[in-house]
Amino acid sequence: MAETYRWTRTFSEGATFSDDLGSLGIWVGPRTGAAGRTHGQKEDYVLRRLLIAWKHVGSLRLPLTVHASDRAAPDFLLSDADGCRGLEVTEAGAHVYQRRTTETPGELRDAIRRKVEKFDQGAYAEPCELAVNNNTEDALDDEVVKWVKDPGLLGRFEAVHLVDCDGTRVYADVLGDVPERIDIAADYDIDLARWARDQIDFLRQRKLERLDIENLIEELGALARRDRRELRSHLINLFAHLLRWQCQKQRRSGSWASTIENSCDEVAGLVEDSPSLRLLLHPSGDLVGKAYVAARRRATRETGLSPDTFPDSCPWDEELERACEEFGESDPLHELRRP
Questions:
Q1: Are 73 and 190 spatial neighbours (Cβ–Cβ below 8 Å)?
Q2: 296-314 pLDDT tens trace
Q3: What is the mean pLDDT of residues 75-101?
Q4: Contacts of 84 (CB under 8 A, 6+ apart)
Q5: Which residues contact 192 (CB under 8 A, 6 or more apart)?
Q6: Paired strand residues for 84
Q7: How far, in Å, CA of 260 to CA of 235, rounded?
Q8: What value does the mean pLDDT take over residues 230-243?
Q9: How far is CA 18 from the centre of its chain?
């Protein structure tokens, strides 16, 4: 077993799987050139898709700790409640010469056979599984996979899995009695845009049992945090320009006025789209206070004036309080730019 590792990562539970996975193996470089993929990148790319596929069909046991080998075989060690097992990664098809020279099933069998020979030579401690990245020019389908099975390859690896060339399909246990095709193209951790479209379709069709509840909760929480951050950013910009407007009257210009008006419009647009955000404009809330502190620092830096030049606390409490109450009927924020 490997004693040194490129990295170690623990996947704690389903609710945090995407966070634990992070950017691991999300991208792999081109086959050649200065930015060409490394051996470790290829291994991580395959591992990511295999873990996602297992989670997709409910066969991923959590918590799971994965060690990525630095030098020794196999490439990964996976530890869960069932014990420790190895995972070796290889690919079918040449690294440099990609043009098809033989039938794809033959290349896949050859890739498996090479690892079986190493297995028979004692290269891998048992139990160990094998994942083969289809690096040929032809995508996998059920017919191709059917021809991969060879009786002479059985009895070594616990299971052999195939990852398709575009990384959106996994065939699990292809040497077993019933290989399982797992489509992960629309998975949250593979294609977020496609995942979102599918979730919308499931909601429209009332297919609630197909909803990805854990990731929906995560995305809705991120949406709420994004709106709050965006509102804070616009308030910082607005307050900083208002401070300069009041304390540098000799430098007032149409450009400054326009910037202030635009900031007011941005805040108003956010509140119009999400009316509940107007409550965050109340001067007693922490959002306004933190935004003003940041704006005061920015105004001090940009003007070169002493911090004492500017009020210690937000001077627009009255207008902001009115904004919380009257948004939709008028736009009190535009009254902030008073002489």
A1: no
A2: 999 999 999 999 999 999 8
A3: 77
A4: 1, 77, 78
A5: none
A6: 79
A7: 10
A8: 91
A9: 7
Decide: 80 and 62 in contact? Cβ < 8 Å: yes
What's the longest Cα–Cα distance across the chain?
A: 88
Q: Take residue 48 and report the two structure tokens written for it.
A: 């990511």
Cα separation of 291 and 228, whole Å?
11
**pLDDT at position 15, please?**
82
Residue with structure tokens 């647009």?
Answer: 269
CATH number belonging to domain 5-210: 3.40.1540
Please name which of 95, 128, 127 lies closest in space to residue 111, comparing C-alpha atoms: 95
For the four alpha carbons of 60, 66, 72 and 75, in that order, the dihedral sign comes to: positive
Cα–Cα distance, 74 to 130 (Å, whole number):
9
Q: Which two tokens stand for residue 70?
A: 């630095």
Instruction: Record the tokens describing residue 116, joined without a space.
Output: 């079986």
Give residue 125's identity as a one-letter amino acid code: A
Query: Which tokens belong to 99?
Result: 């043009």
CA dist 140 and 134 (Å) reads 8
Domain ranges of the chain: 5-210, 213-336
- How many other C-beta atoms can be found within 10 angstroms of the C-beta atom of residue 160? 27
pTM, two decimal places: 0.68
Residues 6+ apart with CB under 8 A from 222: none
What does the alpha-carbon distance between residue 230 and residue 274 come to, in Å, rounded to a whole number?
A: 12
Mean pLDDT of 243-258: 87
The SS3 of residue 181 is: strand
Q: Which amino acid is at 208?
A: L
Coil, helix or strand for 31?
Answer: coil
DSSP-assigned beta bridge partners for residue 11: 64
Question: Cβ distance 132 to 111 under 8 Å?
Answer: yes
